[in-house]
Amino acid sequence: MPDSKIRLILLSAGVMLAIPALSAGLPPVHVQMPPASVSAAQSDSSARCYRVLRTASGTVEDIPVREYLIGVVGAEMPAAYEPEALKAQAVAAHTYAERIRAQNAAHPDPALHGADFSDDSAQYQAFYSQAQMQQFYGGAFEESCEKIAAAVDAVSDALLYYENEPIAAAFHAISAGQTESAGNVWGTPLPYLVSVSSEGDRSAPEYETVCCISPEKLKEALREIDPAVTFSGEPESWLGAPEITGSGTVLKLTCGSAVFTGQQIREALGLRSACFTVRCDDKQFIFTVRGFGHAVGMSQYGANVMAKNGSSCDEILLHYYPGAEIVRTGGA
Predict the structure, then answer these.
(1) Could you tell me the mean pLDDT of each successive run of 10 residues in the chain, 332 residues long?
(2) Where along the chain do its domains lie?
(3) What is the pLDDT of residue 296?
(4) Distance between CA 267 and CA 151 in Å, rounded?
(5) How many whole angstroms separate alpha carbon 125 and alpha carbon 121?
(6) Are 168 and 160 in contact (CB under 8 A)?
(7) Distance of alpha carbon 275 from alpha carbon 203, whole angstroms
(8) Is the distance from CB of 137 to CB of 263 less than 8 angstroms?
(9) CB count in 10 Å sphere of residue 260
(10) Which of these, 47, 43, 2, 9, lies nearest to 144 by C-alpha position?
(11) Is 321 in contact with 161 (CB distance < 8 Å)?
(12) How far apart are CA 91 and CA 85, in angstroms?
């Protein structure tokens, strides 16, 4: 994906979702599609369509699966990445779409008006139409589109499964050198979304960034989360010692009279990730941030490094989703 975009795509039974329409009160959803029952027709991306709500027009369109996956990979991962990394992204995107489609079929979201999902990148995967792809890639459109299409076609029959259902195939741009577990970030552990090494991320451009926040901006941002929070004394006394995970993600941080999660602080202050350290210097808070995104699941930059070093699509996927199974129907 473009490195400025991060998608939280954890969609698992009982997980508190970032997607408003799906986050409240839904019973557990089990897709129940045993690998042996995934037919060639299901995996035939040229014959099947996803119903996609186009947010700009409010209409629901039937988009062939192949076209949809090309548009998702083109929006979610740089076309300049290695072919094996693009394939891994295509499988993750396809798995995500199948999981969401089944979840919305079982428990329809009225806001979707009968669609499987929408093209709203704040709630679902980013998706570029061909016109948007052409605008985004400019003079490199044809080459980029051909490369992405080849990757999608090569893995059109592949999905990631765990215990007979498509996995919550979360992905992010850059980890801090170690991915994070779903339990630490979203509160519900999943056996295939655990912390794994992703050392290649440390070589990423802007792996480490610095963000300076004034005390007034900090107070204003955190009061958007908790209007009751108070701050007293000098700014250097406002922050407590953070509680962090082994991957470096901030779990909790006392700010003034309240305790916030690292993810809350990240979102409130517009930080690239919740893997940060902070100090107060010259009456401003200086956040040193590593990585980009929620850090759960596949690191896109790490996947590209693995591909450059000779790893296959399968090896990339099984590294970042340990315990998952790659199911192929032979329909590609």
Answers:
(1) 33 31 25 36 65 93 96 96 98 96 93 93 89 94 96 97 95 97 94 98 96 96 96 94 96 96 96 96 94 97 98 98 92 46
(2) 20-204+294-328, 208-290
(3) 97
(4) 33
(5) 5
(6) no
(7) 16
(8) no
(9) 19
(10) 2
(11) no
(12) 10
Q: Which of left, alpha, beta for 163 (phi over 0: left; psi -120 to 50: alpha)?
A: left
Alpha-carbon gap, residue 39 to 33, rounded angstroms: 10
Dist CA 297 CA 92 (whole Å): 10
Element housing 150 (H / E) = helix 141-154
pLDDT at 46: 56
How many angstroms separate the CA atoms of 151 and 88, rounded? Answer: 9
- CA 275-318-185 angle, to 5 degrees, is 25
Give the number of residues written for the chain.
332
Locate tokens 């090309």: which residue? 70
Residue holding tokens 């969609």?
A: 11
In this prediction the pTM is 0.85
Strands (E), the chain: 49-54, 59-64, 117-118, 158-162, 165-166, 171-172, 208-213, 243-244, 250-255, 258-261, 276-281, 284-290, 298-299, 325-328
pLDDT computed for residue 32 by the predictor: 31
Total H helices, total E strands in the chain = 10, 14
Pull the structure tokens for residue 299.
Answer: 């690191």
pLDDT, residue 44, reads 57
